[in-house]
Amino acid sequence: QVQLVESGGGLVQPGGSLRLSCAFSKGVFNMYAMGWYRQTLGAQRELVALITPSGSTNYADSVKGRFTISRDNAKNTVYLQMNNLKLEDTAVYSCNGRSTWTKNEYWGQGTQVTVAS
To answer: Which residues does 60 contact at the CB level (< 8 Å), separation at least 6?
Structure first.
């Protein structure tokens, strides 16, 4: 079964940057669309960014121009570069992988990002 392990979360001041990583294993990475989602307490999980196997990307309006999703198919890893972080970016960020073949999807355990002064 596919496994996803996130890393890179932490505490950062407003205006700062973080890079999240999601290591993918036990599957064929380049057959999966990969996404980053986030969730705050009491709120629904929302899509932050998505990248297809071919590298096409899609972003939530709230992060356009600040966040960049990328993937390294040689390393089976997807990244989320987050710049100019805002207080409202505070959330648990989770990595998602969805097979373009079977439509099965998998989730990582999540990593906390806290933006505070």
So the answer is: 46, 47, 48, 49
